[in-house]
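re the bet — no i am not wrong, look at it urself. input seq straight from the record:
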Amino acid sequence: MDSQVPHQSKKKLKPPENAIKHVGLGFQMMLTIGVFGWLGYKLDTYLSSTPAFITSFIIIALVGNIYLILKSTK
């Protein structure tokens, strides 16, 4: 018995560019929210205030990231 693999296409597969793009957007979103949250935390501790800055900075980062994601996926 001859165990041959059926003839497959000689084309090389391209890397999944869309997946790489979306993974990059995910990392960008995570980093942006983290940096804005950290800045809000530092500002709240410096001013000894309620967590108003951390909350507002995280909301600003989320809105900005959603805008960038919608803009890049059109």
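see?? Residues 18-72 form one domain. told u. also The helical segments are 17-47, 52-72. so pay up
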